[in-house]
Amino acid sequence: MRHRSLLILTTVLTTGALTLTACGSRDDDSKSSGGGDTQTVVIGVDAPLTGDLSALGLGIKNSADLAVKTANKDKTVPGVKFELQALDDQAQPSVGQQNAQKFIGNKDLLGVVGPLNSGVSQSMQKPLNDATLTQVSPANTGTELTQGNNWKTGDKKRPFKTYFRTATTDAIQGAFAAKYLFDNAKVKDVYLIDDQKPYGAGLAASFKTTFTELGGKIVGTDHINPDDRDFNSVVTKVKRSGAKAVYYGGEYPAGAPLSQQLKDSVQIPLMGGDGMYSADFISLNKKAEGDIATSVGKPVEELDSAKKFIADYKTAGYKDAYEAYGGGTYDATWSIIEAVKAVVADNDGKLPDDARAKVLDAMSKVKFDGVTGPVSFDEYGDTTNTMMTAYQVTSGKWASKLSEAVK
Amino acid sequence: MHELPQQLANGLILGAMYGLIAIGYTMVYGIIQLINFAHGEIFMIGGFGALTVYLGLPSGVSLLAAIPLMIAGGVICSVAISVAAERFAYRPLRTAPRLAPLITAIGLSLALQQAVWMWYPDATKDRSFPQFKGEAIDILGAHIQRGDLFVLIAAPICMLALGLFVSKTRAGRGMQATSQDPDTAKLMGINTDRIIVMAFAIGAAFAAVAAVAYGLKNGQIGFRMGFIMGLKAFTAAVLGGIGNIYGAMLGGVVLGVAEALATGYMSDVPGMELFGGGAWKDVWAFVLLILVLLIRPQGLLGERVADRA
Question: What residue intervals traverse the membrane (chain B) (predicted)?
């Protein structure tokens, strides 16, 4: 008996060890440079590739992949071949931090695209900053990520010099949502719900500020646990409050059942931010009709600059849609490619030894016409493009209603 | 307070679901004193089994007609996995110290989640589950969705059947005997191994029924849904008195109603504005659990006074 269990234990350990080594060697392979005259630059991607936010995450990974492939095909940077290292953060800050360490450890890696979640970014900013490794998020909207914790009082201070983003901030998104609901949808009484995560709570707070400034009334507030799927008790409270709409700071996995249960008992729309703007929100929610979401940038489908992106994405044959952040991701990846290009051009067509620091310097000067419009970064690392769009579910699809640049 | 009937109904529906899952915790604990933490995943697998059957049916079959088949599919999957878990993960450890099977159960729970995540098509994100069409029905001032009627009908039927089984049949009495004293039961000619397998199977079948109810109610199932539901159901089992099947259902309903009332009314209590709503409902549920255990350590309907470790 004793021998048998020892045997099993040994087998398990050996198998485990073998599997781990196998993983290790695979990683090493991907790092090895191409030899000859071409130098390899790796761009890291961090996004939730599994779990309930994977629809958005896979769109990010594929779009970054497309940018890298395009740069290699067009030889955008002569003598440099780009590679992608995509890691799954499962939308968890702790995993994101481990991924940041892996990125730092890869000597050929000069920039990181991602992550999706503001909460994950908070755990990645410091290690990447310490390693002077540039990070561009296509999706983080948490205002404090670029402007520090005291941005509300006007004391803006950039906490990490390595952090950039192609998405606008919650401050802008929440304000835009409040204006749209008050001016365009003519709703004056709103019930406010958030999921207590940095993204959801930040968005709800900035919505509240603008909405009350405009003269609207917040008739009630509540918080939910994003892992729950039964929100009927909260819905009953919403019904009692007499609200004409619900604003939800959170993401679609909990937003979809919340919207459905809401409409089971009272016919008012649910409005959310870019975390709700996903096709999965509609496929998981049989009563999504009339719901509203805001998202960053203009709808990619309506931009001339994006036609090529959409066509290329289709040609590349990715299994998953590019979703809300496809265009922003392509631009984020491309901004790193542009920075590498500037660095290489300054150094006689070769990568310098302190390539990471040089790329970071070049980032603030990057300026190009991207998928979502002109791309450049301000002194906080925020995008200078503050275009926002409101969408509404119409005949089972997200239809764009209003696009506006927010001051 | 005019929406009190609605909040009670919300709590009752949720609680009945907790109760159905809690049966599995309580039966297994009653017989082998194992807290089967993988039971939440058995519940989740039942949901995916039912969904598979639904997707396999020809289109055009009405949901009402599909439900018995979906339940059957869910029950088969749950029971198969649960019995296999008992045979290969728990039975070899039956004589080991109590902590060993407990840790095994936690490990098994993680493994089952990952297995579904990896092998079930598109399970990396929430899958949508069929739902009844049609308007809600008003009963005694509460608005009840058609899908929610399922759990309100299924839970009492299941409880009645289980009650009859345990008290009237030979196997059920064998189960009682085994839970009172496994060694003596064995001496009396009861095949305790079979009884234990039966306890796992019944618990799994009830969990599968709860999973169908969960899907019909929320319109989606996901590989992580077993964790939070399992935790709540385990709480319900303790609240009602672990080891007692009626206690499990009572504990579930009390817990569900407590959550609904905490969400609905706690913030109206003067001075408690900040401690109400959906975010605090779990805290209040556990406060209730602690209070009950302080006054009645054996739970609401629990009988055993001292644990026979």
Answer: 12-32, 39-57, 63-85, 149-166, 195-215, 246-266, 278-295
Alpha-carbon span B216 to B218, nearest angstrom: 6
| Total domains present in chain A | 2
User: Quick one: A325 and A356 in the same domain?
Assistant: yes
Residue B259: list chain A partners with CB under 8 A.
Answer: 233
Is B308 inside any structural domain?
A: no
Rounded CA gap, B256 and B8, in Å? 9
Asked whether residue A290 falls in the same domain as residue A333, the answer is: no
The burial class, CB within 10 Å (0-12 / 13-18 / 19+), for A28 is exposed
B137 confidence band (pLDDT: 50, 70, 90): confident
- List the one residue out of A187, A135, A192, A197 whose CA is nearest residue A164: A135
* Of the candidate ranges A285-289, B205-209, B269-273, the one whose mean pLDDT is the lowest: B269-273
pLDDT at A386 over 80: yes
For chain B, the domain total comes to 1
Q: What is the ipTM of this complex?
A: 0.82
Over 80: is that where the pLDDT of B31 sits?
yes
Q: A271 with A400, same domain?
A: yes
Burial, B291: exposed, middle or buried (Cβ in 10 Å; 0-12, 13-18, 19+)? exposed
Of the ranges B56-65, B111-120, B271-280, which one carries the lowest mean pLDDT score?
B271-280
In a domain, B300, yes or no: no
Could you say which DSSP state residue B275 is in? G
> Which chain A positions have a beta carbon within 8 Å of B260's beta carbon?
232-233
CATH number at residue A153: 3.40.50.2300
Residues of B in contact with A265 (CB under 8 A): 6, 136, 143
pLDDT band at B304 (very low <50, low <70, confident <90, very high): low
**Token pair belonging to B37:** 């933490």
Beta-carbon contacts of B13 under 8 Å, excluding residues fewer than 6 positions away, are A232, B144, B148, B151, B152, B217, B256
CA distance B28 to chain A (A): 25
Question: Both A159 and A289 in a single domain?
Answer: no
The 10s digit of each residue's pLDDT in A309-338 is: 999 999 999 999 998 899 999 999 999 999
Q: How far apart are CA B149 and CA B178, in angstroms?
A: 36
Rounded to the nearest integer, the mean pLDDT of chain B is 90
Residues of chain B with pLDDT > 70, as a percent, come to: 97
On whether residue A71 sits in a domain, the answer given is yes
For residues A291 and A269, membership in a common domain is answered with yes
Q: Which of A53, A223, A236, A248 to mutate to test the interface with B (most CBs of B within 10 A)?
A: A236
For residues A287 and B215, give the distance between their C-alpha atoms in angstroms, rounded to a whole number. Answer: 16
Same domain, A150 and A66: yes
- pTM of the full structure: 0.81
**Kind plus residue range of the DSSP H or E element containing A344:** helix A326-346
Read off the pLDDT of each residue in A86-111 and give the average, rounded to a whole number: 94
Query: Does residue B134 lie within any of the structural domains?
Result: no
The residues on B that touch A, with CB distances below 8 Å, are 3, 6-7, 10-11, 13-14, 117, 124-126, 128, 131, 136, 143, 145, 214, 217-220, 222, 224-225, 227-228, 259-260, 263-264, 277-279, 281-282
In this complex, the residue of B13, B125, B219 whose CB is nearest that of residue A52 is B125
Q: Smallest Cβ distance to A231: which of B3, B7, B278?
A: B278
Inform me whether the pLDDT recorded for B258 exceeds 50: yes
Does a structural domain hold residue A360? yes
Residues A396 and A276 in one domain: yes
- Distances in Å between the Cα of B198 and the Cα atoms of A137, A380, B27, B49 are 53, 64, 10, 20
Structural domain harbouring B186: 4-125+143-295
Quote the domain boundaries for residue A353: 37-168+303-376
pLDDT score of A9: 54
Does residue A127 lie within any of the structural domains?
A: yes
A51 and A141 share a domain?
Answer: yes
Q: Report the CATH number at residue B9.
A: 1.10.3470
Whether B21 is covered by a domain: the verdict is: yes
Please report the pLDDT score of residue B133 as a whole number: 84
